[in-house]
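Retro notes, structure queue

What went well: the backlog is down to a handful. What didn't: a couple of records were mislabeled last round, so from now on we paste the full input next to the output in the thread. Example, using DUF1993 family protein from Duganella lactea:
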Amino acid sequence: MTTFSMYSASVPVFKQILNSLHAILDKAEAHAAEKKIDPTALLTDRLFPDMLPFTRQIQIACDFAKGAAARLGGQEVPSYEDQEVSFADLKARIAKTLAYLDSVPQASIEGSEGRAITTGSGEKTKHFVGQTYLFHYALPHFYFHATTAYDILRHNGVEIGKKDFIGSY
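Corresponding output:
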């Protein structure tokens, strides 16, 4: 009989998609160079005027990954300044997030299904238990922003597909 693992349902999942986003950024950078597109055009593009731009989608995906690992692990959520303006900056942010995920002890996340989790402040405060937080809040938000980043690049002609998004596991 296998037992459920909060760690296995979180950190490896975040790492898989973040590694994929890192590889996709390489393809986007190469696409911009090959097509002689100013990289800023891709970095600032959005799917619709009321949506956040590509760079912000990557930042938020990283934020949800590190935030979930920290909260589930009972740690303080590290704060990253949102100052990325290039593909290299975004790759560095992903690498920093991956390094943080590797630093969170697996044992601190295991058994966090019932841990009290609070996010936001003021009117935006939300209260969860660990499993609900992971499955109904952190993962959906993470996937939304990762997918939106992928979609922006695909919409702009970057030759990426489902295998690029899913990556290896």
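Agreed that this is the format going forward. Reviewer comment attached to the example: The chain has a mean pLDDT of 96.
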